[in-house]
Amino acid sequence: MKEFTIGKNDAGQRLDRWLAKTLPLLPAPLAQKYIRLKRVKVNGKGSKRDVRLQVGDLLQLYINDEFFDAPTPENAFLSVFKPHLDLVYEDENLLLVNKRPGLVVHPDEHERVNTLITHIQAYLYQKKEWSPYWENSFAPALCNRIDRNTGGIVIAAKNAETLRIMNQKIKDRELSKYYLAIIHGRMNPPSGKLEGFILKDESKKQVRVFDHPIPGGKTAATVYKTLKVKGGLSLVECDLLTGRTHQIRAQFAAAGHPLLGDGKYGRERDNKQYGRSFQALYSYRLSFDFTTDGGLLEYLNGRSFQVEHVDFVDEYFGDK
């Protein structure tokens, strides 16, 4: 743990911006997580990221020592890290990146460097479009998340205005996200809507689906359409009307048709015969369907972007 006392030069800053300035090697998403977990204390208490610091405030940082190193070319990973990105689209405001399954989107206690946001930041750093050492620099940030073992399109903002607009559009459901999934069995009817209430169990990192309202539960709705059937498997397209944790995986499992390869919500013996160890789920298409002014991003309205190649579709439904 390290302590800092706020002087006149730092007074008036937001906590998260002071932290980014003081610890430039600490990735922005991890800094936000540490604030949420109360590993950054102001006068002995946890605090919100946007609190304004005052002269004399005592900050206690329960953060790993390596983040306190000075940012030099020798220890700044951005200059030597070789980013690997599958870009679906890029312009001056944002990136659409096809995240591969197995890659985490943000740093955590287990993986600090090899994450999607790190690849993106290194990519933009090496293009000289962004540097954490520029004064008042905005750190590229993700607008949406995808589970480690799910692949698909992730939106990354290059500037604060893009991040603000995208977060609002996602909240207002002015973006449409379509997934491809392979499920066990056949849906009856072949097309329809799965509706219910999802309750998250933080201790198990899992959710449960209920067909009635429950305290703490959130509504969940998924429109699905069966595209192909082959043997004991079905390829379905899903349109998320809500964006709950593990929504597609949990709802199809609750309907009696868990996703192929899903070890958390499916059955191991069913997955074993197909040789797949993680869920066959891919966020393959994204549409910008603004119903209100898109501001800086209005030029994206009406456009749709798609990942053309999804490996499990070819593997289980290709012509062989």
CATH superfamily of the largest domain: Pseudouridine synthase
How far is the first residue's CA from the last residue's CA? 59 Å
Total helical elements: 7
**Which ranges are low-confidence, i.e. pLDDT below 50, for 5 or more consecutive residues?**
none
Give the number of domains: 3
* Shape assignment: globular
- CATH topology label of the largest domain: Pseudouridine synthase
- CATH class division of the largest domain: Alpha Beta
SSE string: EHHEEEEEHEEHEEEEEHHEEH
Q: What is the CATH-assigned architecture of the largest domain?
A: 2-Layer Sandwich
Instruction: Characterize the biggest β-sheet.
Output: 11 strands, mixed
Structure class:
alpha+beta
